[in-house]
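A.,

Following up on our hallway conversation. Structure tokens first:
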């Protein structure tokens, strides 16, 4: 049904220039994807840490000024008794958290969908208090000629989903938070259904049950309601932890085709297919029993966080679907399939 590209990974950390001197790129992964003109654009999550300095603990930070963010470095003496290390995720110092890595969104460009050149500078970088800890996992949906980009915004108030819009991938207008903390994995449909914009999202679940895929609708892409849980994790080794949506759904004659992710036993992430009703997309038509894609290659099993395949970007090109995915929270890969093959696999 799907074939991993022999040239994977298509983007790795060494392919990405750090945002500033003293930073190092630790991950280039989980790319959103779209066609723009004759190019495939990837909106890559670039995770950066700091170059080490003997005797110090260093973390990346963002300084805000005039609606823009500047990458800087915070240093702590390693022998300072007030420094508390939080495993590999960061430092707690005098009442404040500082992360060991911070992410932004970087563009990569390709004419054929397989060979990419990565822009030297960030495309979306933290620019307000809701984004001060970084931007993660962008999705892009083309609606009526405009490109709407949603991404996870991280701050001391936890993570939420923000929306931006662009016409040229040069000038970007931020539209603010559209789903409050803690809500992510938002996939906006490429057209209205029943006169409303619709989306899938994944609120966190710290109470009963496990995190699942929800449906929502909006009159303007900014104000969302009509929330309902439509797909819950199954009691299988592949979905034992949680599930969440992926790239924007694809319209087919049989329904809205969705590729979603499941977190299973041992924190293994895999991909599954789902088909939603065309007119009532909160209704599930079909759901695959077996994974579409699992981590099996060394570049998927070994990395910053191993045994992960995670897709939030798909491009239709030349009759094929190019499914872009993050591997091991470290690099970008692509797998090739087509709509007919996926529909036949249910």
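Then the amino acids I'd put at each of the 346 positions:
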């Amino acid at each position: 049904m799907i074939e991993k590209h022999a040239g994977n990974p298509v983007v790795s950390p060494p392919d990405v220039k750090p945002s500033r001197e003293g930073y190092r790129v630790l991950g280039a992964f989980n790319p959103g994807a779209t066609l723009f003109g004759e190019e495939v654009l990837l909106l890559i999550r670039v995770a950066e840490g700091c170059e080490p300095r003997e005797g110090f603990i260093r973390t990346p930070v963002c300084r805000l000024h005039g609606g823009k963010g500047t990458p800087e470095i915070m240093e702590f003496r390693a022998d300072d008794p007030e420094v508390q290390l939080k495993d590999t995720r960061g430092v707690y110092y005098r009442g404040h958290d500082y992360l060991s890595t911070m992410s932004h969104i970087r563009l990569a460009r390709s004419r054929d969908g397989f060979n990419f050149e990565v822009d030297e500078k960030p495309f979306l970088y933290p620019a307000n208090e809701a984004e001060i800890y970084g931007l993660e996992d962008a999705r892009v949906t083309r609606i009526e000629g405009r490109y709407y980009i949603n991404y996870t915004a991280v701050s001391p108030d936890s993570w939420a989903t923000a929306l931006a819009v662009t016409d040229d991938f040069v000038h970007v207008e931020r539209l603010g938070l559209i789903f409050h903390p803690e809500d992510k994995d938002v996939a906006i449909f490429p057209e209205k259904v029943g006169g409303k914009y619709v989306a899938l999202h994944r609120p966190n679940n710290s109470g009963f049950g496990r995190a699942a895929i929800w449906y929502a609708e909006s009159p303007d892409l900014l104000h969302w309601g009509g929330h309902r849980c439509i797909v819950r994790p199954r009691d299988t080794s592949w979905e034992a932890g949680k599930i969440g949506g992926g790239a924007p759904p694809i319209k087919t004659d049989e329904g809205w085709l969705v590729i979603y992710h499941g977190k299973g036993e041992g924190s293994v992430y895999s991909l599954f297919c789902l088909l939603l009703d065309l007119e009532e997309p909160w209704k599930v038509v079909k759901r695959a029993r077996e994974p579409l894609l699992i981590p099996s290659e060394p570049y998927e099993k070994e990395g910053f966080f191993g045994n992960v395949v995670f897709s939030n970007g798909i491009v239709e090109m030349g009759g094929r679907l190019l499914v872009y995915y993050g591997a091991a929270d470290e690099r970008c890969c692509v797998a090739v399939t087509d709509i007919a093959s996926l529909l036949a696999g249910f």
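The chain has a mean pLDDT of 96. Curious whether your intuition agrees with the design.

B.
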